[in-house]
Design brief:
Blueprint: H1 29-40, H2 61-74, H3 86-103, E1 109-113, H4 116-135, E2 141-145, H5 150-159, E3 162-166, H6 177-183, E4 188-194, H7 206-215, E5 219-223, H8 231-237, E6 253-257, E7 269-273, H9 276-279, E8 284-286, E9 294-296, H10 305-342, E10 347-349, E11 357-362, H11 371-383, E12 389-391, E13 400-404, H12 413-429, H13 437-443, H14 453-462, H15 476-484, H16 487-501
Parallel strand pairs: 2-3, 2-4, 4-5, 5-6
Antiparallel strand pairs: 1-7, 6-7, 8-9, 10-11, 11-13, 12-13
Helix pairs in contact: 2-10, 3-10, 4-5, 6-7, 8-10, 11-12, 11-15, 14-16
Length: 504
């Protein structure tokens, strides 16, 4: 029998999973749902017409029920492979076909995506790969107005394009078409226009920009994520809307979010191309591994068919007449809100809003935009139960408050204006927002890439964003500090702050 030996010392073992206490014992379903409802109580309301950003409320209660039921039917369907789940191809063809009927041309093809960012990412990829194969461009550039959505910069960062940013007209906030044309070079893969821009809600001169791109043999994408499923129905109401779809010569792709004015639940979007050959460049295919051959039309592989099904159901439920009626309600709200805003002392509406997005700044007694008043007004309105989105100054464009009108706001304009007048008086009575000049001077000398975590933590603590006390009750001092920082330092601070919210 083997000789008994002394036990060998062993290294302490490290569990590959978190302690069992991190995942509690199972609990009853109703208890879990109650906890989720309690968590939602601290969020901004998504229904009722008092949140003027992030949510798109049709004001039709049965629409939510339809979306949820349609999602439930397809929740377990995997959109990865339409040969196994042919219903996915049928639904997607229906949804893309509906968008093409409004904004496309014969032969147009597209894809259903998870949202505007994915649609834009795919359009930029398609343009990059097209420029490489058709024109031999190896260091592609992306020409875009300064008001183009940040998603284009995200796509350029991910996909290796150089953004070429062109300033917009400081009075109209529209893209400067001649300046955009002058920025096009042999390296340009894609030119961008917005219909409308998110920040100010104004429609870029799409036809002029697209013509300039076409003259140089360059693709042109129209970001109609927010206006693509609203402006055409506004035109049906009788309002003059400049064409911006694929029927405009030179426009080669367009993005349209159905979870905005299509009133589907998030996320639901469509990216549409002039033809299938152009769409092919957005696809990813790989057969050089031992698993199944991979063909991904979009960024995602596995995805629930539920999002597609609920978008399909809402589109077919509302139809042309339903969307036209909802567009009319938004137009009526805008017709009431715009003169009401302009009647308030010190408020200036920015640009000429295309219909559903409105941005306004607040002037000081000297007649210039006042950052402190803008930010205090946002805080005062939030205390009164309204969420208006603060937007900071940028490259000479003034700080402002952004409102997204939906059908649910059509009967909220009068109380909104009443509270806005009261909040404006309260904002003017607040202590001025003062940012420490020494901190601003220091910020101008810092390199965001060399800051240590301790440096960043110090900045965040100074701003009251160290995470110890949760989110500040008033955002004005924090946003004023951010407004004063250089853009790249601002980005680093925001990254660290958001990261601090997602720590386990």
């Amino acid at each position: 029998m083997p000789r008994e030996s002394a036990a060998e010392p062993t290294e302490p073992t490290v569990s590959a999973v978190r302690p069992a206490s991190a995942l509690p014992p199972g609990r009853p379903a109703e208890q879990l749902l109650a906890e989720l409802r309690d968590l939602r109580a601290a969020d901004a309301p998504t229904r009722g017409g008092r949140t003027f950003a992030y949510v798109y409320d049709a004001g039709l209660p049965d629409l939510d029920e339809l979306s949820e039921a349609a999602y439930g039917v397809f929740t377990t369907v995997n959109g990865l492979d339409p040969t196994v789940f042919p219903s996915v191809a049928r639904l997607e063809n229906d949804v893309v076909g509906a968008v093409s009927a409004i904004l496309g041309v014969p032969g147009a093809q597209g894809s259903f995506t998870s949202g505007g960012t994915e649609s834009i990412l795919l359009a930029v990829k398609a343009a990059r790969d097209h420029a490489r194969s058709a024109r031999g461009v190896t260091r592609p550039q992306l020409v875009l107005p300064s008001t183009a959505h940040a998603a284009f910069h995200k796509a350029a960062h991910y996909l290796g394009l150089e953004p070429v940013v062109v300033r917009v007209d400081p009075l109209t906030f529209r893209a400067d078409a001649p300046a955009v044309a002058n920025a096009i070079t042999e390296r340009t893969a894609l030119v961008v226009a917005s219909a409308p821009s998110y920040a100010h809600g104004v429609l870029d001169p799409v036809a002029e920009i697209a013509a300039a791109a076409e003259a140089r043999g360059v693709l042109c994408h129209v970001d109609a994520c927010i206006g693509g499923w609203f402006l055409p129905f506004l035109a049906r109401v009788g309002l003059p809307i400049e064409p911006f779809g694929l029927s405009v010569p030179g426009v080669t792709s367009i993005s349209v979010d159905l979870h905005k004015y299509g009133y589907a639940h998030k996320g639901a979007s469509v990216v549409l191309y002039r033809d299938a050959e152009l769409r092919r460049h957005q696809y990813f295919a790989y057969a050089g591994w031992p698993g199944y051959p991979v063909v991904n039309p979009t960024v995602q592989g596995t995805k629930s068919g539920g999002l597609l099904a609920q978008a399909w159901a809402v589109l077919h439920h509302l139809g042309h007449d339903g969307y036209t009626a909802l567009a009319r309600r938004v137009a009526l709200a805008a017709d009431q809100l715009l003169p009401g805003l302009r009647s308030l002392d010190g408020i200036r509406v920015l640009g000429d809003p295309a219909g559903s997005l409105i941005a306004f700044t607040v002037h000081s007694s000297a007649g210039t935009p006042d950052l402190g008043l803008v930010l205090h007004l946002a805080d005062e309105m939030r205390e009164r139960g309204w969420y208006l989105q603060p937007q900071l100054s940028c490259d000479g464009l003034p700080p402002n408050l952004h409102l997204t009108l939906t059908p649910a706001t059509s009967d909220r304009v009068e109380p909104l204006l009443a509270d806005l007048a009261e909040a404006l008086t309260a904002a003017r009575a607040c202590e001025p927002v003062i940012v420490d000049p020494a901190l601003v001077e220091l910020g101008a000398t810092l390199d965001p890439d060399t800051l240590t975590p301790e440096d960043v933590a110090g900045f965040l603590a100074f701003a009251g964003l160290d995470g110890a006390g949760g989110l500040p009750t008033r955002a004005a001092p924090v946003l004023a500090l951010l407004d004063a920082l250089p853009p790249r330092l601002k980005e680093r601070m925001l990254t660290e702050f958001v990261g601090s919210l997602f720590r386990v």
